[in-house]
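User: Hey, quick favor. My workstation is busy. Could you predict this chain's structure for me?
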Amino acid sequence: MVELLDSKVIDGCVTQHFDFPIGVSTVGKVIAPGLGREMIIATTTGTTATHRVEGMIKNTINGIAVAKACGIEEPKVGILNVDGARGVERALKELQSRGYKFTFSESLRADGGSVMRGNDLLAGTPDIMVCDSLTGNLLIKIFASFTTGGNYETTGYGYGPGVGEGYDKIINIVSRASGAPLICEALKYCALSAKNNLLKLADIEYKNANAAGLKEIIGKILEKDKPAAAVEEVKMPPKKVVTYGIPGIDILELEDACRSLWKEGIYSESGMGCTGPIVLVSEDESENAVNVLIKNGFK
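Assistant: No problem, here it is.
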């Protein structure tokens, strides 16, 4: 199979298993059951990066390239509400502000935003749902076989083509549970990717993202997450009644966000609101607290 791809005898292929290198993961496509919309899941198998947030940022670029190969000229991007989602959102907004052109989707929920919830999955709100590959893998399996108990995948397009910076093959993945109806669509998905030159589109997206500072943005994230030689001891300020909730903090950064406020003499507590993690502060310190969190890169 690889020899046929390398020699250009075939332009793409569909297979049950392939060892993609680190940096490459597959971009799947499903039919959302709520409204019957097609939705791209970026990504579904493989490892784009060993760091979660870095991986999801690159998954976004991979998803955009695939969406364009599928004929969506201006795909709308949503970020699934999993660990790391807020960090991904901040990084993508910075990338966007520095010239990388794409559009965020808006959640169906009343509070909107680009971070997607369960009902957005069912409705197919965004054109591209960005997630980590393990969650994406789970989603593909659920959407493809929820009517059969999981033993036979009937709907959707499979786990999709492997995409990554500089990758030069179109290899679409299906599973041992994939049935004939899904494999039929996976073959069409592969053919469409090859016909519309997915590899060239991916190269263009990475070139544009790198020009907007992709590597620098990721470098800052990785530097921030390096383990400190010693954790600075920060004394908790005197307790106050905390009734003001500050949303938009990633669960992985919640305790660090509270400590950054303590350092400035602002008492805070971590909590969980109806839409996700929150930092709780007193009403009279709310504005100052938000400014401190922004200054320290938590919002």
